[in-house]
Amino acid sequence: MTAVSGQQPTAPDPAVTRQGAEEDLRALFGQSTALFASLAGPAHLVETANPTFFASIGEERARTGVALADLMPELAGQDFVALLDQVYRTGEPDTGRDVRVVLGSGPYTRETFFDFTCEPRRDAVGNVIGIRLLGVETTQVKHAQRLMVEHRALLEQIARQAPLTEVLDGMASCIENLAPREVLVSVLLADPDGRHLRHGAAPSLPDFYNKAIDGIATGEGVGSCGTAAHRREPVIVTDIATDPFWNDFRDLASQAGLGACWSTPILARDGGLLGTFAMYHRTPRVPQDADLALIRVFAGTAALAIERHHIEQAKASAEARAKSAHDDLARAVRAERELRAEAEQRAAAAAELAARVRAAAAAQAAAPHPERCQLGGPAGCPAPAEIKIADSWGDSAWGCPTHVEEAILNVRSVFIANEELGGLAAYLNR
């Protein structure tokens, strides 16, 4: 205030000064992305707050002149209230980093995080009359950090070739834990022909529901997933109860307590269908940008896991075929060796029998029809000589039926000779 000549300067009114400062703060933070609230008394009465504050706690609760505990009853017993009480009691400012605050109740409960600075408000004599709250919501940053950690863990699982079911179950559970509101995740895998979808992972959906949709066809109007697989593009159904895509599955979804389903096709690098990635909600719901980003990230991760699984399957199948071919070749080689050995044995036996026939032919000069078999080898054969055999060279011998059969099977060009005709003549005139 500028003094006027002849007058004494007037001391500023503390109440007016304080009010002006509060108006300056309201003007400063009115359009800010940082939240601001001015609280009064030990009950933390909300005197004023900017739109960002009410956006964080819920637009439906945009009221002033209400105690914070009445405006947000879910804060009872939480660390945030204890922080405010401490600042009011001690008069010392405090700062909280990544303070966890659970907002809402029942199905609308959501976990949030804030960086807060709490400063005491004082009257003209220095007594604490309230708290000035400045803060920034860090929920998305916190979730992004969690997402990076979980996503890295999934990529490590894929890299170490963990079973596909383990990777997909882990991914589904990860998303369900990261989502700010309750979500139920499902992954369906495409058959090789791309015409049907099979159960892949859905840890939180009822078993009866998973069994019912296992094997559903891909096609226009076949729920969210069948349609997404058919179109090769995301299909967002915000209200299952009224959407025509769910005409054939509406009762099933009602039994499972499902109100919305957002499905995205999982595509290979060449555009082929690998499956679908779906996020279910208990109540009708429209996706936010953060939801769509989460879907894109994990649909890509699922594609990587499924493609890796297919590659490993193809590799294992090729290795199995190679091993089978190797085993078949080994068996063929063994069989060939056995046949060769058998042939060599037969050749040796044939040579020995041929020698017996020649020896018998020479012996027939003294005894044209011997009494005993001449084909028994060095040990001889006591059986009667009943049948005469001959070869194409004219050599002949007498033997028993057993040794004659052995000679016919093993010695080339041996045949049964008439007793009246000998050797070559019997062969030529048979």
What descriptors fit this protein?
430 residues, alpha+beta, Beta-Lactamase, 3 domains, 6-stranded antiparallel β-sheet, 12 helices, 44% helix, rod-shaped, disordered N terminus, disordered C terminus
Q: How would you portray this structure in words?
A:
The chain is α+β, with helices and mostly antiparallel strands and about 425 residues long. About 45% of the residues lie in helices and about 20% in strands. It folds into three domains: about 15-135, Beta-Lactamase, CATH 3.30.450.20; about 140-315, Beta-Lactamase (2-Layer Sandwich); about 365-430, no CATH class. It has helices at about 15-30, 50-55, 70, 80-90, 140-160, 165-180, 205-215, 225-230, 250-255, 290-365, 400-410, 425-430, and strands spanning about 35-40, 45-50, 65, 95-105, 110-120, 130-135, 185-190, 195-200, 215, 235, 260-265, 275-280, 385-390, 395-400, 415. The strands form three sheets. The chain has a six-stranded antiparallel β-sheet, with helices on both faces. A hairpin with a 4-residue loop joins strand 1 (about 35-40) and strand 2 (about 45-50). Helix 5 (about 140-160) packs antiparallel against helix 6 and helix 6 (about 165-180) runs antiparallel to helix 10 (about 290-365). It starts with 13 loop residues before the first helix and ends with a helix. Mean pLDDT is about 80; it is low at about 1-10, about 15-20, about 25-30 and about 420-430.
- Overall mean pLDDT stands at 81
Counted by DSSP, the helix tally is 12
The backbone outline, from C-alpha atoms, is rod-shaped
Strands, count: 15
Assess the beta-strand content as a share of residues: 15-25%
- Main-sheet strand order equals 3-2-1-6-5-4
By CATH, the superfamily of the largest domain comes out as GAF domain
What is the terminal-to-terminal distance? 150 Å
CATH fold-level label of the largest domain: Beta-Lactamase
Q: What profile does the largest beta sheet have?
A: 6 strands, antiparallel
